[in-house]
Amino acid sequence: GYNGSVCNDLWKLQVGTSLWHRVAPATSPGRAYHAAAFDATGTWWIHGGVDESFRAQGDLWRFDTASHTWFQLSLESAPGERYNHVASWDGGLWIHGG
Question: Which residues contact 52 (CB under 8 A, 6 or more apart)?
Fold first, then answer.
């Protein structure tokens, strides 16, 4: 997100109570304009976006919702840096545009 600076915080809405809770720790890099998708195991994937200097990024991160832990993946081949793209999951991560 972006609120005057690039954010790296993560929030979860408890639908039953309509209350937002901040999920800690927020050890992912600050990003805006990235693509995100959930897989069938509850893992959240984010790709690319722009960093604090508004430079396009091409890295891939996953967030384990059970352990609240971020992991950066090392990729040998990957699409180039991009932002304002979309992502979806169907057994693999798809991204388009940017």
Answer: 5, 6, 30
pTM for the full predicted model: 0.86
Write out the DSSP string of 10-71.
Answer: EEEEETTTTEEEEES---SPPBBS-EEEE-TTSEEEEEEEE-TT--EEEEEEEEETTTTEEE
Which residue has 């396009």 as its token pair? 56
Q: Are strands 10-14 and 19-23 parallel, antiparallel or unpaired?
A: antiparallel
What's the gap between Cα 49 and its chain centre? 9
Phi-psi category of residue 19: left, alpha or beta, with phi > 0 → left and psi -120 to 50 → alpha: beta
Report in angstroms the alpha-carbon separations of 31 from 12, 19, 49: 17, 24, 6
Site of tokens 């169907």:
90
pLDDT digits (tens, 9 = 90+) for 22-65: 987 667 778 899 999 999 998 999 999 999 899 999 999 999 98
